[in-house]
Amino acid sequence: MSHPSQAAKFLKDEKRAHWHDETLWFVREKRDISSKKIPEWEELRKIASGIKDHVLSNLDNYLAELEKKATENGIHVHWAKDAEEHNKIVLEILKKQKCKAIVKSKSILTEECHLNPFLEKNGVEVVDTDLGERIVQFMKQPPSHIVLPAIHLKKGDISELFHKKLKTQKGNEDPEYLTHAAREHLRNKFLGAKVAITGVNFAIPETGEFVVCTNEGNADMGVHLADVHIACMGIEKIIPRRADLGVFLRLLARSATGQSITNYNSHFRSPAPGKELHLILVDNGRTNQLARDKFKNSLKCIRCGACMNTCPIYRRSGGYSYGSTVPGPIGSILSPGIDVKKYSTLPFASTLCGSCSDVCPVKINIHEQLYEWRQEITKAQGITGKGLSMQLANGIFKSPLAYKISGKMLRATLKTLPNSIIYNPLNAWGKGRDLPATPKQSFKEWYQKNRS
Amino acid sequence: MKVALFIPCYIDQFYPHVGQATLELLEKLNCNVSYPMNQTCCGQPMANSGYERDTEGTTRQFIETFKDFDYIVAPSGSCVLHVKEHQPCLKEGGKEQAEVQAKTYELSEFITDILKVDTIQGSFPHKIGFHSSCHGQRGLRLSSSSELNEAPFNKAKALFAGIKGLEWVELARKDECCGFGGTFAVSEEALSVQMGKDRLSDHLEHQVEIICGGDVSCLMHLQGIAQRNNNQVKFMHLAEILNQAIS
Ligand code: SF4
What we know:
By secondary structure, chain A is α/β, with parallel strands linked by helices. Chain A has 22 helices and 9 strands.
């Protein structure tokens, strides 16, 4: 499905769309206030961007170092070239443990790999322990936002859902009450799981450790109660040294939610006595993206979600309109790298306003990459009607005479035709907007008569 | 100083009065301005649709037309941004193309940065809502961006500061996109209109009399929505206000 039709569908309920926009704008404003309290904010962004550039150009070395140090620390390191391999590795570990139920803390990578349906098919119960994630899991939906997975749902929706799934009182929308019910439900799941899966926010080759950031402490809870911890990370999640962590932790929380720091930043370096710790390093298209000069720095992304909150398109079309695991501006440059045909409308789902690039804590030139993807996508599409009309336009614009004649014709046509039957592209213009009044003469004609 | 007026194609065809205001304003500011008759379009609509490679002819035409001037000035931030950043590099263009790109300016930028006019003296007793168009704002940095941690500035606001009676209204979302976005306005019609409606409400809730901007394209989009909904708010380009205020 294309983005325009999905967006139009979302906008049918104008009130809800408006509420969605306001809710995310509120997060964006919190982010503004919080980032402006830090005088060196722009400096921090520059430093973070530089560190990530450096990581991307030395990724092979850093990955090798990470593997070496982590292994020395007693972590089992695995490599997965794609989603399928990743899922298999997870399943094998579970089989060895004879584990039939796992708890998972928010991990976008496992979403990307479609781990949940895979494990469920293989008889493993998967429980997402982040509150928002659990909510969308109950609804059999993917997250609609990478930081706020259930942001598209209103209190009433959640109350109704919990009433059905957790037997809460019908109509009780008190957030505290609902959260409490969810916590109780999750507690039982935590206690029963032998294996916990987490994502990774930052992996540090210098020390062979990794850091997981959550606001609910659910990653810690899962990991501490389970015998086995499986951490899944995309290979780009590296920062070189422990000392770099401060830069990223300051940027991440503020960009994501406007908090000064995420509530739980947990470091994992080696398994507790008698326990197992696995780290799976996943490529799944990342080296391909790294090889694309124009798009490689999309891999600098630290998944804060700020570009989604600021994006006027995302705010008014919702996460599902993108049809990809990572939605919004950054998703629109990552997804075509995975499947250019399937995601061909995403780079066009933007006005190229540039707000995403200005908000991005690691200074990814998102809107410029959207522009570049447009050039690539039209090339991949071969000859199309749109392409031919662009060549025609070039033919007109390279000739002053052709331009003059066609301009005159256009104005004459617009004057005589009512909006409804004006040819196709302008039809879409006329659905919700009037056309400008057509003047008698162009500026060029006026100038010729009056000035030359 | 030889200044060439670059009037983007849609202004030429639909908003000739904005072209006239720009010309008169620059003349009042003592510029030696002429309008090269061979100009057509900068190529932005094609490039933004993904067909930058098909704008070579258009680009060549642009460079040929403007290369002999000291400055090229346009009342449109987005067209200027296109010329500066998205023209395809012509094989034979080399130095000439780079020079043309470097000497192309958006109107308010030209007045403040090149003519070194801090503020315009005059009178215009009206309540103005200013729409900061994204390409001008975040592309050309004509005003500060609310995402960045930087001292606030706005070149248009600075020019308006000396005008008697002009009341500048601060909007709730001071630099939100209006949803025009070139061909986006057509390919994502539903979204574009919704964004425009929201943008318009911000102005209307602040009871502005005139919505002003530096890009006619955004104004055309907002005006189209206002008209469809029978809103009486007026629209004027920055050049028209400055030109009227002086005289
Ligand atoms: S692209 Fe930048 S703003 Fe968007 S999620 Fe990634 S780090 Fe955050």
